[in-house]
């Protein structure tokens, strides 16, 4: 079984097969799994799970979920937990979500966040549509930071984006 790819101490990325290994999740102390697929299964393990139901097509809307995913990962880290973001192959959708987290909560530029996730998991390749959505997200985060200089980016979610359904 391929191990999880560690992006930060509290964030990992993988494919669906690895994410559904209860032994691996327990060994890696994962407490939150974000499934960025329409159909891939959830792990049969005692972890909190959430689904972002998007396909890996450039025209699919991942953008409206980026804030909620980034905030859920951040909240889990603040509780001392570890998040795993996965999609079918662990290449495009899950990578885009990890990049969004780094941009929002570690104030990284898009290019730097992509490099960090790629260093952890060299096979990542967000599709062109998701890259464009990440660029839009970077622009939005910059606007938020510029308009609220006394607040951190983590305290200003976009109220237009739907919350992440966690169960």
TrEMBL record:
Pfam families: DSPc. One of its GO terms (cellular component) is cytoplasm. GO terms for molecular function: MAP kinase tyrosine/serine/threonine phosphatase activity; protein serine/threonine phosphatase activity. It catalyses: O-phospho-L-threonyl-[protein] + H2O = L-threonyl-[protein] + phosphate; O-phospho-L-seryl-[protein] + H2O = L-seryl-[protein] + phosphate. This is Dual specificity phosphatase 28. Signal peptide: none annotated. Residues 60-122 form the Tyrosine specific protein phosphatases domain. The keyword Hydrolase applies. InterPro entries: Atypical_DUSP_subfamB (IPR020420), Dual-sp_phosphatase_cat-dom (IPR000340), Dual_spec_Phospatases (IPR052103), Prot-tyrosine_phosphatase-like (IPR029021), Tyr_Pase_dom (IPR000387), TYR_PHOSPHATASE_DUAL_dom (IPR020422). Residues 148-158 have a biased composition (Low complexity). Residues 138-167 are annotated as: Disordered. It comes from Hippocampus comes. Keywords: Hydrolase, Protein phosphatase. Residues 2-143 form the Tyrosine-protein phosphatase domain. SMART domains: DSPc. Gene3D superfamilies: Protein tyrosine phosphatase superfamily. Residues 138-147 have a biased composition (Basic and acidic residues). Belongs to the protein-tyrosine phosphatase family. Non-receptor class dual specificity subfamily.
């Amino acid at each position: 079984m391929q191990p999880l790819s560690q992006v930060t101490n509290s964030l990992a990325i993988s494919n669906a097969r690895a994410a559904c290994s209860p032994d691996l999740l327990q060994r890696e102390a994962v407490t939150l799994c974000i499934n960025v697929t329409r159909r891939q299964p959830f792990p049969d393990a005692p972890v909190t799970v959430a689904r972002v139901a998007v396909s890996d097509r450039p025209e699919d809307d991942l953008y409206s979920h980026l804030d909620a995913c980034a905030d859920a990962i951040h909240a889990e880290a603040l509780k001392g937990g570890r998040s795993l973001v996965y999609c079918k192959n662990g290449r495009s959708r899950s990578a885009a979500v990890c990049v969004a987290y780094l941009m929002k909560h570690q104030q990284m530029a898009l290019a730097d966040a992509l490099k960090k996730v790629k260093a952890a998991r060299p096979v990542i390749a967000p599709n062109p549509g998701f890259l464009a959505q990440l660029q839009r997200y970077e622009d939005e985060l910059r606007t938020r930071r510029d308009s609220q200089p006394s607040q951190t980016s983590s305290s200003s979610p976009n109220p237009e984006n739907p919350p992440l359904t966690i169960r």
